[in-house]
Amino acid sequence: DSGVTQTPKHLITATGQRVTLRCSPRSGDLSVYWYQQSLDQGLQFLIQYYNGEERAKGNILERFSAQQFPDLHSELNLSSLELGDSALYFCASSPPGTNYGYTFGSGTRLTVV
Amino acid sequence: AQTVTQSQPEMSVQEAETVTLSCTYDTSENNYYLFWYKQPPSRQMILVIRQEAYKQQNATENRFSVNFQKAAKSFSLKISDSQLGDTAMYFCAFLLYNNNDMRFGAGTRLTVKP
């Protein structure tokens, strides 16, 4: 157990629908990062939050949005889903003031049918 | 923009032997960090080893060590005494100092054969 909790582990939904992925960071970590990993691909950075504020944005589609709440958990919202959005979505967290690397959750596997 | 290249999509090694995975990166910055992550079939991303660019000494973690060549922008991972549990995808990653966007390579699929 890495300490980063992601729910749900699996999600199957239809095209056009909206889903919410949830992430609880490791205790003490203020930063949350979202990554997308398509089948047999590398990880693509989507967005980062630090203590409730958006800090960095990567290749995140306009149909996707995220937020970090006062208790530091984060949610990634995916709307108007397309078949190509099927992927493994990872959340990672890191403590403040260090660059020891990110701790990843076990991911949410999203299948759009 | 920083890029990370892993030129070996797949590799295999016999159990107990040594294997080296290659990684090159491109940056004009001087202060950064490099990482190797392992992704076994469970899909969990596990940090294997970390290197700070300002340190000349190569990082080691038990059977895992790196060969960091800053001038050549190369960061290879050596796995000694390979074990069946080392079978996984290995990702090289780059992070600028005080940056928030860790960049990953495309990965190398390593298979350890009995």
Would you give an account of this structure?
The complex is a heterodimer of chains A (113) and B (114). In chain A, strand 5 (43-50) and strand 6 form a beta hairpin. By secondary structure, chain A is mainly beta. The model of chain A has no long low-confidence stretch (mean pLDDT 93). In chain A, strands 2, 4, 5, 6, 9, 10 and 11 form a seven-stranded mixed beta sheet that branches. Chain A has a four-stranded antiparallel beta sheet with strand order 1-3-8-7, with no helix packed on it. Chain A contains no helices and eleven strands. In chain B, the strands form three sheets. In chain B, strands 2, 5, 6, 10, 11 and 12 form a six-stranded mixed beta sheet that branches. Chain B has a four-stranded antiparallel beta sheet with strand order 3-9-8-7, with no helix packed on it. In chain B, strands 1-4 form a two-stranded antiparallel sheet. In chain B, 33% of the residues are buried. With 114 residues, chain B is an all-beta fold. Chain B is globular and about 40 Å long. The mean pLDDT of chain B is 94. Chain B contains no helices and twelve strands. The termini of chain B are far apart.
Uncertain residue ranges of chain B:
none
**Could you tell me the strand content of chain B as a percent range?**
over 45%
Largest sheet of chain A: 7 strands, mixed
Biggest interface, which chains?
Answer: A-B, 24 and 25 residues
Helix content of chain B: under 10%
* Helix and strand pattern of chain B: EEEEEEEEEEEE
Tally of extended strands of chain A? 11
Shape of chain A: globular
Question: What is the N-to-C succession of helices and strands of chain A?
Answer: EEEEEEEEEEE
Number of strands of chain B: 12
Global structural class of chain B = mainly beta
> What is the mean predicted local confidence, pLDDT of chain A?
93
First-last Cα distance of chain B: 41 Å
Described by its quaternary structure, the protein is: heterodimer
Report the uncertain regions of chain A.
Answer: none
